[in-house]
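User: Hi! I have a protein structure encoded as tokens and I'd like to know what sequence might fold into it. I'm fairly new to this, so please keep things simple.
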């Protein structure tokens, strides 16, 4: 190692960052969403869901009155509606899935029952599948590999990140049994499935990798398996982004002198904290006692390792800095001196935290789902998170048309519901107009079999009473049969609410 000063390497940034899909004006919400929820991808969900339903029914004995006997194959239009309702559940948080279809005044949500029945939604959720079970290749992720590959492929095709990118892990809460469940004490969700993410500094998630245990590392796709676990992760996530002058920020779990050397050879900057026990660390830095605020650094070739003492000693590594102390202003407007490495690292690592924060809002994840379905829904929500940021970052988009996360998700749900939502709004409008119309009772018209036909009273049926009546309301939607006494009044009070 050397203490001689030398300028960092000069790697020109050659990528063309931003949204790759060009149009004359700004791209609409529906157009961006359809880049993720493509017809081909949804057709895959349809095919595998229908196949899994058939396989399940062929391998199990259904009870005589099982609702699963009513299963009918789904199609592209229905799957889009199902996804729309599933994502909308994250916007409106109710205690259980059944509550979205309750007729109780406290929970009444007519949109869900007006678009899809509860039983149909539950069957689609039960049989939702992403791959053929008969093609199990032994990989822990085979059940959702198609969803993960689709996300990574689409992001590489439609978006190029800006110069500052970061790598870190995030956790998806999972407390059930799972071979590769992790515990990380400093995360919000301490138990769960660990995801390695490559993010842009603004929070857009570029690439995702799921940790499935060290025993599965030989299955890494495109990674150089001759390196240790943390180095392999970085090299795998950066496939397609090296040799272009990117600035990568990582923490001490990943950083090492070897990794920095490898990325320097690939014209890629890297910066971050460093563990003291990493192989290749300069011993002189670790042996020197520092006073508070003191900074020392050593260089080997183009790699700088520095040690700075604040409340405790912090070891850093970088190939993009010549370590010096710079003034930094905190939230209380107090100025302190920190190494430029630490300053840029703190700013560069904000992307992961920002994406985790945004994804925690309006989440549709539920406790009762299998782990692979829960993780797939998390990836679907990452689609929407990315789409929202891409939409708002468009150069041609007028400032007044930018949308917050909730407004954007509402538009996504409307788009996925499609014609079903349009018909629901039309029916809902008719109901509102009928409330203002005078209602009355008429006799049921005679049929070929009966001169005075009767039908079950709607209100009595809801109250689990068996009672038939010869009267109905011709003004109400569906023209319900109603008893003369209290049922006519009860039905129209409910309609007005």
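Assistant: Happy to help. Inverse folding works backwards from shape to sequence: for each of the 497 positions I chose a residue that suits the local structure. Here it is:
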């Amino acid at each position: 190692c050397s203490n001689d000063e030398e300028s960092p390497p000069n790697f020109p940034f050659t990528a063309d960052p931003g949204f790759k899909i060009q149009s004359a004006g700004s791209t609409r919400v529906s157009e961006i969403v359809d880049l993720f929820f493509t017809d081909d991808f949804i057709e895959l969900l349809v095919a595998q869901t229908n196949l899994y339903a058939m396989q399940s029914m062929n391998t199990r004995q259904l009870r005589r009155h099982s609702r699963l006997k009513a299963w009918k194959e789904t199609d592209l239009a229905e799957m889009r509606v199902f996804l729309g309702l599933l994502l909308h559940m994250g916007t409106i948080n109710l205690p259980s899935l059944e509550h979205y279809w309750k007729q109780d005044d406290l929970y009444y949500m007519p949109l869900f029952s007006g678009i899809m029945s509860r039983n149909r939604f539950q069957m689609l959720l039960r049989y939702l599948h992403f791959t053929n079970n008969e093609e199990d290749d032994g990989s822990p992720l085979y059940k959702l590999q198609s969803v993960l590959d689709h996300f990574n492929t689409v992001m590489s095709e439609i978006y190029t990140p800006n110069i500052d990118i970061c790598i870190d892990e995030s956790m998806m809460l999972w407390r059930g049994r799972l071979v590769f469940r992790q515990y990380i004490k400093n995360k919000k969700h301490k138990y769960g499935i660990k995801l390695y993410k490559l993010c842009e500094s603004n929070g857009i998630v570029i690439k995702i990798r799921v940790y499935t245990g060290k025993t599965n590392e030989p299955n890494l796709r495109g990674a150089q398996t001759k390196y240790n676990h943390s180095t392999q992760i970085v090299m795998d996530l950066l496939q397609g982004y090296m040799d272009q002058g990117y600035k990568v920020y990582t923490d001490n779990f990943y950083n090492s002198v070897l990794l920095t050397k490898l990325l320097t050879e690939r014209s890629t900057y890297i910066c971050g904290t460093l563990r003291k026990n990493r192989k290749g660390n300069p011993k002189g830095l670790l042996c020197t006692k520092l006073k508070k605020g003191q900074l020392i650094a050593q260089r080997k070739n183009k790699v700088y390792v520095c040690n700075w003492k604040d409340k405790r000693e912090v070891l850093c590594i970088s190939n993009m800095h010549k370590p010096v102390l710079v003034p930094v202003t905190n939230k209380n407007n107090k100025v302190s001196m920190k190494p430029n490495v630490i300053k840029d690292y703190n700013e560069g690592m904000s992307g992961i935290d920002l994406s985790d924060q945004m994804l925690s809002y309006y989440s549709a994840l539920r406790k009762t789902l299998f782990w692979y379905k829960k993780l797939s829904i998390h990836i679907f929500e990452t689609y929407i998170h990315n789409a929202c940021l891409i939409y708002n970052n468009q150069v041609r988009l007028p400032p007044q048309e930018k949308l917050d996360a909730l407004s954007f998700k509402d538009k996504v749900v409307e788009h996925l519901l499609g014609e079903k939502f349009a018909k629901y709004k039309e029916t809902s409008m008719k109901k509102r107009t009928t409330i203002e119309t005078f209602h009355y009772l008429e006799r049921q018209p005679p049929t070929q079999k009966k001169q005075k036909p009767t039908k079950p009273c709607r209100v009595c049926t809801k109250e689990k009473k068996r009672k038939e009546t010869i009267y109905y309301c011709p003004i109400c939607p569906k023209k319900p049969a109603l008893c003369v006494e209290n049922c006519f009044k009860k039905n129209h009070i409910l309609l007005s609410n």
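A useful reference point when you look it over: Residues 199 and 449 are 70 Å apart (CA to CA). Feel free to ask if any position seems puzzling.
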